[in-house]
Amino acid sequence: MKEPKLIEAIGVDKQFGDTKVLRNCSLAVDVGETVVLIGPSGSGKSTFLRCLNLLEPPTGGDVFFEGRNITSDLRHADRIRRDIGMVFQNFELFQHLTAAENIMLAPMRVLGLCTADAHDLALDLLKKVHIPERSDHYPDELSGGQQQRVAIARALAMRPKMMLYDEPTSALDPEMIREVLDVMAELSADGMTSICVTHEMGFARRAADRIIFMEDGAIIENANAADFFGGLVNERTQRFLDQILH
Amino acid sequence: MSFELVYQYLVSQSFISGAWMTLSITVVSLFFGVIVGLIIALLQGLKFAPVNWLTLIYLWLFRGTPVLFQIIFIYNVLPTFGIRLSAFLSAVIALSLNEGAYMAEIIRSGLQAVRKGQRTAGLALGMTRGKVMRYIVLPQAARIVLPPMGNQTIGMLKTSALVSVIAVEELLLVANQTASADFRYFEALTAAGIYYLALTSVFMVGQYLMERSLEPKKRRGAAPRSLMSRLAGKANPKPVAEEGP
Lengths: 246, 245
Description:
Chain B: It is a multi-pass membrane protein. The complex is a heterodimer of chains A (246) and B (245). Chain A is an alpha/beta fold. Chain A is built from nine helices and ten strands. In chain A, helix 3 (99-109) crosses helix 4 and helix 5 packs parallel to helix 6. Chain B is mainly alpha-helical. Chain B has a single domain (3-231), classed as Orthogonal Bundle (MetI-like fold), CATH 1.10.3720.10. In chain B, 74% of the residues lie in helices and 0% in strands. Chain B contains ten helices and no strands. Chain B has helices spanning 3-11, 13-45, 49-64, 67-76, 87-113, 116-124, 129-159, 171-182, 185-214, 227-231. Chain B is flat. Mean pLDDT of chain B is 87; it is low at 218-223 and 236-245. The interface between A and B is medium-sized, with 32 and 24 residues.
């Protein structure tokens, strides 16, 4: 029997009032896969990502996580989100907590870890994202790149089965983009299932197994990375690529 | 003017119990005022029209009429409906409900000042809405609302003098009664003034200490607003506000 996909969206629609933001979006991701989601701004990439962990409940279609339909009962969305880490464009570290405390909060308050265990976990994860020396700093004492790496560590602290990255480097100065992408690529190489909205084609080339192109709320290209970078893409995707690669 | 008499008033049983009454009314009303304010602020966060209308009517009534009116109303009108309350209880209820209306606005603005993305980040970690509120939003909002709450506290202490009209034996009433018995207005009111100043000073110091303990360690370098500038009522040069994204 075929192993179920880790996450699978089938015909997802999203409507805000009269505006259709997503139309019939379907995507299945295997365990260990890294998928990069590209497309012009306003094409619904971020909304699609938020539909996958139910931060935005889809208005149509279904999302299956480990074979279970998670859109049928939104009351337990918080349980699903424990297993799906998310990283945001603006980091969204908790401003009143240090780097270590940011990482410790959810494991302690959701999983019930004791302070000592949570602190050990935080230090391990800060090592993993290459900033062990910043554990006692507050978010506004960290550079953007450091904040985003703490945010990745914070998401990893829940031991998620997959990661969602919503334009993780768009708010960063160019010299900090690399340090964040390196951490993400390392996680992907270690087998972390990931979906990443980004325009960093260098990262896509390095880490992606598949590239999805979205436009006007619809998925119009779903290509494996070799085909994609071999130029086997449809004409609209190619035009977008020409624009972002100049 | 006799300093000796001022001192005698200060240590007299009636002034001490008057000051104690003023302090109790202030603290109890403030406590319930904060609770009422928090409830109203959280209710306003619900997207449910009937609840929103009720909170609006509450705010409209209690911010739109004088607090003196509310005190007299609760003490004198409720008994005609068979609700008989002691003067102290009437005073505390009137002041709490009035304070709650102002606290609600302060707390609401504090909650709104916490960026929406902070809640989203908490939810994305698998926290429930309640936990996000308790561990992420409220601690950040507390830092924002503490300075205006301190001002409310001092305001409340002074407003409590109004309950003398319903014969609660608080500081001002004691002073006034003492003065009209002895015809020593200057001494009696000076003694009351000293108590008021002492109490407000204690509150200001308390607010200073609380603000310092809520400030994260990072601001250890930056000078917090000095106690002297606080006592002089100078505005905070750098308001505690959340940085933009």
